[in-house]
Amino acid sequence: MQLAPLSLLRAAETQRHGAVSGAFLGNTKPTKNALCVSAALWLVIGVFVAHLVTATPAQAQAQAQGPQPSNTAGGVEFIPAATLFAVFDDNVFAGSNSTAGRMLTLRPSFEASYESPITRLLGLYAFDMQQSNFSTLTTLDARRHALGEATFRSTPFMTLGVLARYDRSSTPGDINFDTGLLGERRNAERVEIVPGLTWRLGPRTSMSSGYDWISEHLVDGERGTLQIGRVGLSRDLSSRTAITTGYVGRYFIDHVNGFPNYYTNAVLLGWSRVLTSGNTLSLAAGPNFRAHRGLSYESSAGFVRATPRVRLALDYWHGETIVLGVLGPVAVDSVTGRAAWPIRRFEVGTMLGASDVTTLDERSSRVYRGTAFWSWNPGGLYSIAATYDIDFQNGSIRNPIFLDSERILFDEEVVRHVFRVGVTIAPRYRRSILPPDEAARVKGVTR
Asked: Which of 140, 189, 193, 321 could make an SS bond with 178 (beta carbons 3.0 to 4.6 A apart)?
């Protein structure tokens, strides 16, 4: 595959370097638009607090009466919440020269769901307001997250669904989901839309298809788009064993003149088995035909253990994806392990991961990350959680830039530790949409 001329890479990286200086090291005076948005956000928070105050007596009464049977057959649920974080970050700008920072973050969120026998709708929106000892990091719009999901069972054998997700963050590493790569402080956005169809062809055979559209870009910087098409067929050999076959096609688009687009086609064969109650192993692999780069392979493996005492998940994946600020697709080898132990009202857990990322021109970066978490839910409105995160990144896949004829490389080695403690307040509002007789039956009452 022909790579883009070096002048294009230099121009793109020079644009990124200039944007970093202006966004976080220069003018911090808020604009008129920012002031208007801030006023609107504070108005929303005021409405939320008013609802929270009025909901507290009803919630206390519900707790005094003891737990009630949940209504999962149909209804509407609304969950406004607010989380207050205290954060210490010993490398707040994700560079080789550590600069420690302290932040106080308030995250209002609003979740709503609707469920009926054939339809399920879910919506979530959250944003972060942040106060820091660095004035350039104090903002009312540090991060946004929106999620929408709809599932519709058109017939007993066919289910349609669509998922939409939007993320905006001033730390791009937060939305590099597949690789976990760290990056300098820049405003970045990610949009993903995933429609899908599942069709049961018989008692043991089912077919699924889906389309995944992903767009990522640094604000005032490079944009990358990934389109993925999937078709799969599954056959149950027994109550414990199933085999699968599928096709995955990817189309990578870099919105830079002169840089060619790129596509791959993979055919996968898979096998899964329920080893014992709560333990499942799955494997999949197959050839991957890459445009202008010859034959490669794609593979994945997963193990899940779910019991009342422990939840464990191990995943491995070798494939291709896109990374914020990097032209062209990257090859990824990723290993992730997650474990959680619920202990009455407490839960403790950990996550460990490693990723090896390689670009088209053989630049590589390796990322190791770990998380330990603890949470306590005393019941009712409140919960408390604490996390510790560590990231170690060796190597840079960022294209070099030239400033005054001097070659400048991004940091080759980055270490970051983050401590976070948060308190969440989340009342719930439920309303049944079932007919009176059906609602009574769900609650265990005979009319």
From this structure: 321
